[in-house]
Amino acid sequence: xxxxxxxxxxxxxxxxxxxxxxxxxxxxxxxxxxxxxxxxxxxxxxxxxxxxxxxxxxxxxxxxxxxxxxxxxxxxxxxxxxxxxxxxxxxxxxxxxxxxxxxxxxxxxxxxxxxxxxxxxxxxxxxxxxxxxxxxxxxxxxxxxxxxxxxxxxxxxxxxxxxxxxxxxxxxxxxxxxxxxxxxxxxxxxxxxxxxxxxxxxxxxxxxxxxxxxxxxxxxxxxxxxxxxxxxxxxxxxxxxxxxxxxxxxxxxxxxxxxxxxxxxxxxxxxxxxxxxxxxxxxxxxxxxxxxxxxxxxxxxxxxxxxxxxxxxxxxxxxxxxxxxxxxxxxxxxxxxxx
Length: 339
Ligand SMILES: [Zn+2]
Known about the structure:
The protein is an alpha/beta fold. Helices cover 36% and strands 17% of the residues. Zinc ion (ZN) binds next to loops.
């Protein structure tokens, strides 16, 4: 139901005649009042205090668009008018379509017209219209910090997240090393390559998400159970945490190559799963690994950069990585340099 405080221009001009007869001081104030906030209320109350009848001249949607661009107002004129009409300090609300209130002010002829603190009385656009009709211009006090534009910026700042990027790390041969070369993963021991701690410490200080993506077909082959693997992963995470290293998650594939799963590298399933779970922009992410399957998984997931380590068992790959590095520290330095 439309508030009866909302009047057409014709209606307000008729009302104005009555107020004149009754010697009631008419105050006007112009604005778009998009995203009504406390700063508006303070100004509206101050305006109301200047006289007896307070009329808000509200810029219509057309008017707001013409001076604030096509994305404004956020709130429609109908809703803005109703919100203002619901305020105790507001007596009437009138919409106008023009870019400035010259025409409507020349019709209403207010006793006092209020302008915001950012305008100058001297150069005010409708100064002539107000003064010639015998009115005065009153400048409202500044309400610091509050404006609809600032609110919008604040909201954007809160809700628009920058791209989340990730570094995917292979495990065996990249961060840890098996006791028995060529043997399947020893999930009973933790052995790290020498540059791992400084490299991951450095990476932990950045905003990159850090994921381990590891093929653990030892589960499918019966070398260890999934429960043992999970325990190993927990120990690994705990160890790194103790070194102030952040590993966001370990993704593993427990299948055998013949299972033809999508997660086993060179499949990109683990990378895509992480992307989905953490909202990762893969095209801005990296993978570091010591085998061709890491490079291929990275290419399949359209990562920004694939880095292959020239480890102990290095074999020149058929699919070339974007970079070669001698160890993970060198790889992390490449990533940070590209940042
Ligand atoms: Zn798998």
